Amino acid sequence: MKFIYWTVGIIGGVLALVYITLFTSLGNGLVKPIIESKIQEQTKLPSRLNRFSLGIDSIHIILELNKNNTISIDGTYSIFAQSFDLAYSVDLRELASLESLTKTKLNDSFFTKGTIKGDAKLLTINGSSDVAKSNTTYNVVLEEFTPTSIIAKVDALDLSSLLHLINQKQYARAKVNVDVNFKNITPHKLDGNILLKTKEGVLNSRVMKKDFNITVPKTLFAMKLKANLKGDDIDYVYLLDSNLAKLESAGNIKPQPLALNLRYGVNVKELAVLQPITKADVRGPLHLNGSVKGTKEKMSVEGKSDIADSKTTFTAMLNNFKPQSVKANIKNLHVQKLLYMLKQPHYTDALIDVRADIANADVKNLKGNVTTVVKRGLLDAALLTKMMKFKHPMPKVSYGMKVETLLNKNLIDTKVDFASNLANLNLKRARFNLKDSSLQSDYRVKVPNLDRLYFVSERHLKGGITANGEIKKAKDLDFTMHSNVAGGKLDAKLHNDDFHADIHKLKTLDILDMLLYPKVLAADIDAKVDYNLAAAKGKLTGNISDGKFTRNQVLDLTKQYAHIDLYKQLFMGDVTADINKENILASLELKSNTSSIKTKNTKLNSKTKRIYSIIDINANGNPLVVKLSGNVEKPKVSVDASKIIQKEATKAVTKEIEKHLGKDVGNLLKGLF
User: Fold this and answer.
1) Do 351 and 467 belong together in one domain?
2) Fewer beta carbons within 10 angstroms: which end of the chain, N or C?
3) Structurally, how many domains does the chain consist of?
4) Transmembrane segments in this chain: where (predicted)?
5) CA–CA distances in Å: residue 351 to residues 230, 451, 592
6) Which residues partner with 154 through β-bridges?
7) What is the 3-state secondary structure (H, E, C) of 255-291?
8) In a domain, 81, yes or no
9) Angle of helix 663-672 relative to helix 642-661, nearest 10 degrees?
10) Is the pLDDT of residue 314 over 80?
């Protein structure tokens, strides 16, 4: 019996100690600093309990988180019945000072008060609040401390105040009303509805201009959302209406597992106003409507739009929100309007048709085809001249194009037919490898009138050219070109910046005619050219054969002084040229059966067409020096015929002496001269 007495005594003592510690003023005084310390540790605030009174059946607590922010609880409870009848008040007059607790910057104040009544099985919370200047009431029912029912009414919430409270820019102001009536919020047993209305909405033009450089006219808006929830189904109707945009959607959603059957419509007069939401730097109107059906694993998204004044339709199949297949048809998209939407310069006017059928849209396993047709293209010559800093204006360029693309895993094969009044370009197959970003393509280009490229070449050219070859771009750039030009053949290749060309049997008259230089020599030329694009330096070495001069001032003077007609003779020889940008330093040595023509270090500027050359002519033993300077088309010509004159004078004197004194004396004089 003593053991029982001792046991009862110890238990009674413990209970007395617990009672004294928890439910008496003495005990409250002992526990209070411990609780304060724990609160301070968790909130990182100088919190203190202004009042802490915990009795056997009552509680009264006033917690000061910091200055101007207090929470109070007052009421009765029963430990044994686990019942509560409490009143609470949360008065946060300086939210900005609670950042260490809220983990985010808040502004202004927040106040709510209410009651908590019931027991562990069924608990009811009734309260009210003035959040964002609203008149808010709420009722929450908890069963075993789990919310099962919510009824709330938010009347006249001020949107700009709410944005300021959560530290967001005040992009708009409006009055918001929300009615929430859920009899049951238990998952899979939902029963209730939500009604949200926004009225008197106005966009803040000043903030939009400051933050996004968007000039927005006065914009009024209203919004309405009505949703009925039953079991796993949510039936809803949503509308956002304003003088700039109208967004609407309606249908059915099952959250778990996700299933959608809805329709949508987007009519935006100015996309720029949605930038704070979409984060897309675009502008202009957009009209889009369609439907979304299916589950997370298999979802169909259909739509049609008039983007950039086009007629566009599309269907996309998604798996886990990733595109699996896409079909799209775009008719008469106006490129100039698309450029405007994307805030790009007005490079061109054009209409584009696109037909796409992507059976597999997975980037690693692409499969499908895309056909693109560009019609009525017209480049903005004035803009491009300014942007590219051309020294001469770009001509008016009209164009059209058809592009056929096949997608096969990481390979994209493209056929291009491009036609314009400047040049035509055809690619039978351009292959781009997505895996290593390499490109390999054939090409054929035709320029009917080279002089129309004057804005790029900065020199006038005559005639046209057709060329074909291949382009390869991986780690290095390799380019080949083959052309039948100027009556001969040109084969060229480029490796990165190093260019090499083999010239075979080009007709000099055709070349000079193309370059608009005087046609002084008809001949065949074989040559090699090595040139570095980055340094703009190179060298030409060539051989001239079957050369026959056309009438020119130099040979006319040669005939006058040397009394020999070089026009009747055929010349052959070598030509070299060092190229340094537009400056050319050339040397030429030509020979016939009886004569030779040589020039060394002739200076020619291909841009200015200025020339300086000293030509040594030996016409059947008659030496002549000709100097050319000035414009290559009409150079200034000066002749040094002193050696010919000396020779002719010697012959005349000798002849007279032989006539009067005899041949022996004449031979003697020849030796002296």
Assistant:
1) yes
2) N
3) 2
4) 6-31
5) 49, 28, 62
6) 136, 178
7) CCCCEEEEEEEEEECCHHHHHHHHCCCCCCCEEEEEE
8) no
9) 160
10) yes
